[in-house]
Design goal:
Layout: H1 5-15, E1 20-21, E2 27-28, E3 34-38, H2 43-48, H3 54-66, E4 75-78, E5 83-84, E6 88-90, E7 93-95, H4 103-108, H5 110-120, E8 124-128, H6 130-137, H7 143-146, E9 151-153, E10 156-158, E11 165-167, E12 172-177, H8 182-185, H9 190-212
Parallel strand pairs: 3-4, 3-8, 8-12
Antiparallel strand pairs: 1-5, 2-4, 6-7, 9-12, 10-11
C-alpha cells in the first residue's frame, strides 16, 4: 500500500528513537473483505518484504488453503510496521532478537494503521494475537478469552492530536485469533486454532453471501 508520504516520513523519523529496524508496508487487495492484522514484522518479513513469511507464513498459507482463501484475496498488515528488537549480550556475542512492541511504539504507527482501515474498509478484521486485538478494542481484551468469537463494535483510532485513542463512529466485525506462530510454541493449540479457522470460514461465507444479495 502507498501511504501518504509526509505521514510515513514523520513516523519513520520518530521511529529512530526506538529499537526498530526496516519497514514492511501492508500488502494485498485494497478492497478486500478480510483484513489480517498481526503485531509487527519479524526479521524474515523485513528481509523478504512479505508479511507472514517463514514458518508462521507456512502455517498461515496452509490454513488459508483449507478454507479456500488466498493471500491475493485479503489484506495483510500489522499494528507496527518496523521490526522491534532487543539487544542481548552473551559473553562477547551480541544478538538482536524480536520483541513485543511497546504501547508507545504501537501508538507511533497508529496513523498508518488507521489509514489502512479507512482505505480498505474491510468487512472483517482478523486480530491475530494480543497486540493487534488490544490496539483495536482496548487493553481489557485478550486472545485467550475472545478467540474464535465474532465481535461487532467500534474500534479505536488515534485522536487528531495523536495523544489518545478514541472510538470510531463506524462499527466493525472483529474476529480474534491466535497468531499462526503460536502453534510453534504451544502444540496444544493446534485443535483450537483449527476450529477458529473453521469459524472464520463460516463468517466469511456469510458476509460474502450477504454482500452478493
Amino acid at each position: 500500500m502507498e501511504y501518504p508520504s509526509k505521514l510515513k516520513k514523520d513516523i519513520m523519523e520518530q521511529s529512530k528513537n526506538f529499537q526498530l529496524e526496516g519497514f514492511l508496508p501492508g500488502r494485498g487487495a485494497e478492497n478486500a473483505d478480510v483484513m489480517l492484522v498481526a503485531e509487527a514484522p519479524g526479521k524474515t518479513e523485513i528481509k523478504t518484504q512479505v508479511p507472514f513469511s517463514g514458518q508462521a507464513g507456512k502455517g498461515l498459507d496452509t490454513a488459508l488453503d483449507r478454507i479456500d482463501l488466498h493471500r491475493e484475496d485479503i489484506y495483510m498488515t500489522s499494528v507496527v510496521r518496523c521490526r522491534p528488537y532487543s539487544v542481548k549480550k552473551k559473553g562477547e556475542k551480541q544478538t538482536y532478537p524480536n520483541r513485543t512492541p511497546s504501547k508507545t511504539e504501537i501508538r507511533l504507527f497508529a496513523p498508518l494503521f488507521d489509514f489502512e482501515v479507512a482505505t480498505v474498509q474491510p468487512k472483517i478484521i482478523v486480530a491475530m494475537g494480543n497486540s493487534a486485538l488490544k490496539r483495536l478494542l482496548g487493553n481489557h481484551y485478550n486472545i485467550s478469552s475472545y478467540h474464535g468469537q465474532t465481535l461487532q463494535q467500534s474500534i479505536y483510532k488515534l485522536s487528531k492530536d495523536r495523544k489518545n485513542y478514541e472510538e470510531t463512529k463506524e462499527s466493525y466485525m472483529i474476529f480474534p485469533m491466535y497468531h499462526p506462530a503460536a502453534i510453534l510454541y504451544n502444540r496444544n493449540l493446534k485443535e483450537t486454532m483449527s476450529e477458529d479457522w473453521a469459524r472464520l470460514s463460516e463468517l466469511i461465507q456469510k458476509v460474502t453471501t450477504e454482500k452478493s444479495e
